[in-house]
Amino acid sequence: MKNYFELFNLTPKFTIDLSEIEKKYHQFQNQFHPDKADFDSIEHSILINEAYKILSDDFLRASHLLQLKNIDIENDENHIKPDITTLQEILDLQEKIFEIDNLDEILVLKNNLNSQIKKLINDFQNNFEANKFNEATQFLIKAKYLKKSLIDLKNRQKNLN
Amino acid sequence: MGLLQIQEPIPELENKDATAVVVGIDLGTTNSLIGIFENEKLTIFRDENGDDMIASKVAYNEDGEVVGVGKNASGKYQISSIKRLMGKNYSDLKKLSLSKNFYDDLIIDNTENKDAIALQIGNKKISAIEISAEILKYLKKIAEKNLQKTVTKAVITVPAYFDENAKNATKQSAELAGFEVLRLVNEPTAGAFAYGLENQSRGTYLVYDLGGGTFDVSILKIDRGVFKVLGVAGDNNLGGDDFDEILQEKGVKNPREVKEKLSSQDFFENISRQEFENLISEKINKTLTLTTDLIDDLEIEISQIDGVILIGGSTRIPLIQKKLAEIFGAKKILTNLDPDRVVAIGATHQAYNLSHSKNNLLLDVNPLSLGIEMMGGIVDKIIYRNSTIPIAKAKEFTTYMDNQNAMKFHIVQGEREFAQDCRSLAEFEVKNIPPLKAGIARVRVVFTLDADGLLTITSEEKFTGEKQEIIVRPSYGLNENDVKNILLESLKNSKTDIENRLLTEVIVEANHDIEIIKKDLKNPQFILTESERKNIESAIFDLENLTLPKNFSKNINEQRELIDYGQKQLSKIAENLILQKVNVVLKQKISGKNVDEI
């Protein structure tokens, strides 16, 4: 497993200085991007792009922290499923999104989902930092499903427009 | 002029430092521009009419031969807006609601063989790629005439929302025109690059780019020379041409002129600006929805946008500026660079940046998701849109039958769930999988998008470790044979190319002589009478005039002979001066001094 924190000279933890990451990212790409580098290979540039994307996004960074603990929630083949109440909640949500046809309601639901995701990632952080990895994983998995629902909701909104 | 050549060799036409000349090209639907940034100075080249915006129009005669390019090109067939067909095939056209064009009747139905789209011009079938190459060849000539150097390297801009096929097609047409493409840059990125460099900006900028045929919106973060694209969206079939068509349907005879006039006045030829705005408001609203959706997708707030950069002639329409001001606030709308030239300016800056300074960095994204068609026609997305490029993603696949020895993949581009609704990019096959039970053989496929956003694929069979590199052939491009044939064909027609080259050579020689004689005139060592001096000066003046492209006659050979004659005249008139110089040079050589010290 690649450790993207290491690539950016950071200790793996959730709290991170985003402007510092961005600064380093620019430094690295100024050196390794094919427009800048003296060599032809684009591998380094690709790796730096990947690392920056993961480190700069709250959800992806959280998920990467779990990966470093050998818990991979991105890969569906690993069969890490949310608990039964979360599952029911998500099914209800999907149904709601399928039926929703009022733009105002969509906006309300969107805001609601965004703040829920934010809170879940916050819960993840608290548990992860307390070394409660199973609990942390459950919060993040729920966030993952809500993020998917949010995309469905946005598509629904586009179709209505 | 043999005498001068003894001492000061004429610079070779082929540039020795090949990296030195890199031009920037804005290859537009309606107009194209070519320019260079050199010695801290930006130049957009002008053609013999004095225009820097070259009409993207190619004229053919009834035999399918090119008879002209640009504004004044005329012939039996006059093809413009060919950019709209780049990378498409016949069945794509039927799916898209493209606005009508006068070349519509010429398009050949080649649905069966999935070839690049081609037009029946006289008895020839000519692909969109070849027509586009004619525009590029013409631009190349204009640059070479102005620079008096062979130009082979270029940065070319493409709409951000161009798919793989269209980008590949553009690259192929550049190759046909004799260009090596250093980079394909997205048009809004080039625009933002021009703004960022000229205004030393920092912050988050939205680029609204409405050209003749395409709409692009792009959001970038600019920070100390790094231009990072956060995301792009757009519509390849929405542009100023559509407004012309709407007017035409209402019975307006000269739609473009009416449209342009209504940007600065309230009435023109019985149409009010209000009426025009009502007619186009639906299209404008579509661009605004794409704009606000992109902001939403990127999870940024409207208040975070520091400025809105306008690109493309259509952004002169007051309604567009008004609507954007309503969303972002009037103060944030930036119009201080000419919307028709800002993309070309950015392209020349990037050309210079790649060949010389390397001070700035563009980090671009892929505009459309890339996926594989799975069983049942569902698309499994591998690389999501708005990912920073270069990027690579790996995915493992396994066999579903015992002893299965090959796997076939269909790659598509687009956001829709089903492959049939996306653009088909390419098909490839992984062969020689060892005979094993279903699910045992595992093939790891890596998809790589380079810094131009172009795709390569490699596969590795995990059990045997056998690797394959798959060349992704664009579904609707030209294959290698096509390219070879076209190049052969163009060699046959290259008489004018050779003539142009000879002309360029005599111009280079003439200017070289002028430069030296001018220098010698200032040298107090050489003694000349007042009338000798005057005669030389007037001969220089005459020769200089002959080498100016704007004074060229239509006949290339005739012009070359004129310049050649003028050059000989100059050396005759300057004979006394040249003889004095030769004497000095000979004396210096004898006494062992360097010629340069004269």
Largest sheet of chain A: none
Instruction: Please work out how many helical segments of chain A DSSP would assign.
Output: 7
> What kind of oligomer do you see?
heterodimer
What global shape of chain B is seen?
globular
From the alpha carbons, calculate the radius of gyration of chain B and give it in angstroms.
28 Å
Portion of residues in helices of chain A?
over 70%
Q: Please give the number of β-strands of chain A.
A: 0
Counting helices, strands and paired strands, the structural category of chain A is mainly alpha
Uncertain spans of chain B: 1-19, 592-598
Q: Unreliable runs of chain A, pLDDT <50, ≥5 residues? A: none
User: What is the helical fraction of chain B, as a range of percent?
Assistant: 25-40%
Mean pLDDT of chain B: 84
Query: What is the rounded Rg of chain A?
Result: 18 Å
By DSSP, the count of extended strands of chain B is 27
**Helix- and strand-based class of chain B?**
alpha+beta
- Mean pLDDT metric of chain A: 91
Major pleated sheet of chain B? 6 strands, mixed
Largest Cβ-defined interface = A-B, 19 and 23 residues
- Straight-line distance between termini of chain A: 43 Å
Quote the beta fraction of chain B. Answer: 15-25%
Structure, explained:
The complex is a heterodimer of chains A (161) and B (598). Chain A is an all-alpha fold. Chain A has 7 helices and no strands. With 598 residues, chain B is an alpha+beta fold. Chain B contains 15 helices and 27 strands. In chain B, the strands form 7 sheets. In chain B, strands 1, 2, 3, 4, 10 and 11 form a 6-stranded mixed beta sheet that branches. A 6-stranded mixed beta sheet of chain B has the order 18-17-12-13-14-19, sandwiched between helices. In chain B, strands 21-20-23-24 form a 4-stranded antiparallel beta sheet, with no helix packed on it. The N terminus and C terminus of chain B are likely disordered. The chains are: A mainly alpha (161), B alpha+beta (598). Chains A and B meet through helix 2 and helix 3 of A and helix 8 and strand 19 of B.
